[in-house]
Amino acid sequence: MINTILDDYRHDEAAYYADLAHIVEAAADDEIDHCMDLATSMEFQEHFSEIDEDAEDVQDFLEHMDELPDEEDDEIQRILESTSPLTYDQMIGLEPIEE
Predict the structure, then answer these.
(1) d(C-alpha 1, C-alpha 77), whole Å
(2) In sequence order, what are the residues at sequence separation of 6 or more whose Cβ sits closer than 8 angstroms to the Cβ of residue 84?
(3) What values do phi and psi take at 69, rounded to 5?
(4) CA-CA distance, 34 to 75, in Å (whole number)?
(5) What span, in angstroms and rounded, lies between the C-alpha atoms of 96 and 98?
(6) What mean pLDDT value characterizes the chain?
(7) What values do phi and psi take at 59, rounded to 5?
(8) Per-residue pLDDT tens for 29-65?
(9) Closest Cα to residue 90, out of 6, 25, 13, 9?
(10) Alpha-helix runs per DSSP H in 1-99
(11) Under a CB-based contact definition with an 8 Å cutoff, are residues 82 and 97 in contact?
């Protein structure tokens, strides 16, 4: 019974740290968001009104974004199995975890 409680606690803590890492990463992306806002502004579109060849691909991606797999469980498992602190890219699976 104590092992089950400890396992549940470890899982909840890992889920908390995964959520926290996402929040920190999102906060770090504020400058990118600002640039994206500028890029989608009317002033930008007036100056650069060329046809965007990737627009159809982007629209298809946005329409199917809800179908993408949720990798939260994988992130939590990586945190649980880690023996050292992970970078954000390691937590989300973009970089290998070096032991």
Answers:
(1) 22
(2) 99
(3) -70, 145
(4) 28
(5) 6
(6) 79
(7) -65, -40
(8) 777 877 788 777 777 666 555 556 567 777 777 777 7
(9) 25
(10) 2-28, 30-39, 42-47, 55-63, 72-81, 88-92
(11) yes
Q: At what angle do helices 72-81 and 2-28 cross, to 10 degrees?
A: 110
The Cβ of residue 82 has, within 10 Å, a number of other Cβ atoms equal to 14
Q: What is the pTM of this model?
A: 0.43
Distance from C-alpha of 39 to C-alpha of 37, rounded to nearest angstrom: 5
Burial degree of 15 (CB within 10 A; 0-12, 13-18, 19+): middle
Q: Please check the confidence at residue 22 and state whether its pLDDT lies above 80.
A: yes
Type of residue at 68:
L
